[in-house]
Write a structure and sequence with these properties.
alpha+beta, single chain, about 130 residues
Length: about 130
């Protein structure tokens, strides 16, 4: 009888907590993304693809691949810092010193709806736009 009473208390608690537990799940960034990049200074543009892998609570490994002038491929693998996170979005930032370009800064907002980022360096600035494949 005591075990039935215990079950009568525990089962409803578990059932009522399931919707709450599912709301707490974080947005999943991992996977394939594709889109384009555009320089706001020169007007150059090209294809952009990305894969993301969360390293820990505050860092994401990104692998960007794309093309410049339709023929010149590029690959870029930065570690991005998660500066803000909610259940349905992330804000990522990073910087890197690149040969011939100097310091390269970027900031991105990522959600289920897409990846939207800005970048800037001493001589250029632009945008990256991608959606999940």
């Amino acid at each position: 009888m005591k075990s039935m009473r215990t079950l009568a208390i525990i089962v409803p608690l578990i059932l009522f907590s399931l919707p709450i537990l599912s709301l707490g799940q974080d947005f999943e960034l991992a996977g394939q993304w594709n889109g384009s990049w555009k320089s706001c200074k020169s007007g150059h543009r090209g294809k952009l693809n990305a894969q993301f892998c969360r390293l820990d609570e505050t860092h994401v490994q990104a692998k960007f691949t794309g093309s410049f002038a339709k023929l010149i491929p590029f690959r870029y693998r930065p570690v991005l810092t998660i500066v803000h996170e909610e259940s349905d979005l992330m804000i990522l930032e990073g910087s890197k010193k690149l040969p011939l370009v100097g310091n390269f800064y970027y900031s991105a907002t990522v959600s289920e709806n897409g990846f939207s980022a800005t970048y800037r360096s001493r001589r250029d600035q632009g945008v990256w736009q991608m959606n999940r494949r």
